[in-house]
Design brief:
about 325 residues; alpha+beta; Beta Polymerase, domain 2; Methane Monooxygenase Hydroxylase, Chain G, domain 1; 7-stranded mixed beta sheet; about 60% helix
């Protein structure tokens, strides 16, 4: 799908473009969402730059993501997508600055694009350009990453409470809780790693863009905004590292508590085996098929054997309690 954003007074109007129709000459932002070959050719005819393919956008080398071609700056970043769903993922998005026009190429719908599109449809600066739109997009991307990390932090705190201060102390409830916590921690760890991957790519893009802004004498407020975004991305990267460490600690703590639960269960079985071993021995002795067993002829032989079995079971239990092994 090909969309062109054209200035209309104090707003940017989104104009869907059919491949058979020309792109408006005054469009400051051309957005390619899962473009077809015809849409790629239409943009290439207007701008004179080659639109990268999906395979080219997914390459991870810096030279394949940040480069200049025919006077246009190509910048590819990894952005978060579907972060609120059960299957969050990352997607590569290419920003192309050709003159004062911005071209974006993407194959998913990250939320910052919707936010910025809605914002510019309400109001935009009078001297809006491709650089202005890109600043808005990058600022929205950084804000979105911060929101995701804040939510992860709140969820991790709740998980920490569930691990160390469980409300339901029953064994069955704890087992179910541990299983759910492991799943939750796995999802949060995966989401955190994806956010960190996105922040690393955004930081590279911002450093490259800041150098180009200095070389091409961008406006002072735009360069200041770029430096502020670099600081924000750096602090968010540190925070994502902290969250990863905390998730690792909680996973280790949870596995330790699971091991303690298992040890307690094994200890109960071990004590039960020791307690019932002497009575079993006594019963085995008097269950032998020998005629010369003196106690068989004693009138109180049967009660005596029962008393011996009970005593043999009680004495080890009392000994374990005295040693504080139970």
């Amino acid at each position: 799908m090909l969309s062109a954003y054209v200035p209309r007074g104090s707003m940017l109007e989104r104009v869907p473009v059919n491949p058979a129709e020309p792109i408006p000459d005054d469009a400051v932002w051309i957005d390619l969402l899962t473009p077809t070959a015809d849409e790629d050719k239409l943009v290439e005819r207007l701008t004179g730059v080659a639109v990268p393919t999906r395979e080219e956008m997914q390459e991870i080398e810096v030279t394949s993501r940040l480069y200049v071609e025919n006077g246009a700056h190509f910048m590819t970043a990894t952005l978060m997508c579907q972060s609120d769903s059960d299957n969050p993922k990352t997607t590569a998005v290419t920003f192309i600055l050709a003159g004062h026009r911005l071209i974006t190429v993407r194959y998913d719908e990250p939320r910052p694009f919707t936010i910025v599109g809605t914002k510019l449809a309400r109001a935009c600066p009078p001297n809006v350009s491709g650089e202005t739109v890109m600043m808005d997009l990058l600022d929205a991307v950084v804000d979105r990453a911060a929101d995701i990390l804040e939510k992860i932090g709140a969820d991790v705190d709740q998980v920490s409470h569930d691990i160390f201060e469980p409300e339901d102390a029953s064994a069955a409830a704890r087992t179910r809780s541990y299983r759910d916590i492991l799943r939750a921690m796995g999802r949060k760890g995966d989401l955190t790693s994806k956010v960190r991957e996105s922040l690393v790519s955004i930081h590279r893009l911002l450093v490259y863009l800041a150098n180009e802004a200095d070389n091409t004498k961008w406006a002072k407020d735009q360069r200041t905004l770029l430096k502020g975004m670099q600081r924000d991305v750096h602090s968010l990267s540190d925070h994502s590292t902290y969250l990863s460490s905390k998730i690792t600690f909680l996973l280790d703590a949870l596995l330790g508590m699971v091991s303690l639960e298992q040890n307690n269960i094994i200890k109960i079985f071990s004590v039960a085996a020791v307690v019932f071993m002497p009575p079993t021995l006594i019963a085995s002795i008097y269950g032998m098929n020998f005629k010369a067993i003196p106690e068989l002829d004693v009138p109180y032989g049967y009660p005596m054997a029962l008393v011996m079995m009970v005593a043999a079971a009680v004495l080890p239990y009392v000994f374990f309690k005295w040693k504080k092994w139970l």
